[in-house]
Amino acid sequence: MAPTRSFGLLLALLSALTFSTSGPFAHALLGAGWTAPAAVATRVGVAALVLAVPAAIALRGRWGAVRRDLTGITLFGVLGVGAAQVGFFNAIRYLPVGVALLLEYLGVVLVVFWMWAAHGQRPRALTTAGAVTAVVGLVLVLDLSGGARLSLVGVAWGLFAGVGLASYFVLGARETPEGVEGVPPLALATAGMAIGALVLLVLGATGLLPMHATFGQVTLGDQRMSWLVPVAGLSLVAAVVAYVAGIAAARALGARLSSFVGLTEVLFAVLVSWLVLDELPTTVQIAGGALIVAGVALVRLDERRPAEALASA
């Protein structure tokens, strides 16, 4: 049974919160000498293994849905999982994390244009206002007033991550025709992560992507610990919980609304950095967070209007 829209909103917030923890975990691995593709492949590969049995149980009697949607699942794994993460992890090698996040979340705007171009869902006034408000909020939360010079390579990786993020929301929200069984969210997340990991490993084995990992002590915040700790955090919290909740939320809310709620990941990332790295949010960042919430509220209000009009007809 599909989750209700209210529960879907809670799932979207949970997904954003757990995704936001990936920054400190990934930073610990990259700082210890891991390459971005190695970190991503390990993250999603371990997560896929953890979810393999539950996903198989969810698919009992529904393997035909996987065969019918194999192309969509593959695209989800390559673009929505692999491209988004590799793009972001590579972007933070050249850019401040805040700038990289802003570039990645331009993918949310791409979702609105995609739904308009591909499905004729022209954004109404409230959605447009919500998009502008949320983007302004992002700029404030990321506090980019320092005016640092941007690396073109980093910008390219950040925009690449944005395309991957847009693909994640659009492909995760696809609906199956009436009377046709779709792939359960748990199975879609698992298959997508497995395909993403496999593609990255193949590209690494052929030398097209750099693959390097170290297996000693790493630094997370101001603590030294085993490399297994950030790997577990990336795989279980920032992948298993984040992807399953995110896909279920996208199906309950639709691609556009779920993508805008996903903007709260940036706000959560500020809070996580405060807790883990002792970086206090500034007044400007708090104001930006309020604008993000306002933007999401405008989009949610716009999404509710057609249903309310239908009910009163």
Automatic annotation (TrEMBL):
InterPro entries: EamA_dom (IPR000620), EmrE-like (IPR037185). Keywords: Membrane, Transmembrane, Transmembrane helix. The lineage of its organism: Bacteria, Bacillati, Actinomycetota, Actinomycetes, Micromonosporales. Residues 7-142, 153-299 form the EamA domain. Belongs to the EamA transporter family. PANTHER family: ACYL-MALONYL CONDENSING ENZYME-RELATED, MOBA-LIKE NTP TRANSFERASE DOMAIN-CONTAINING PROTEIN. GO terms for cellular component: membrane. SUPFAM superfamilies: Multidrug resistance efflux transporter EmrE. This is Threonine/homoserine efflux transporter RhtA. It comes from the Bacteria.
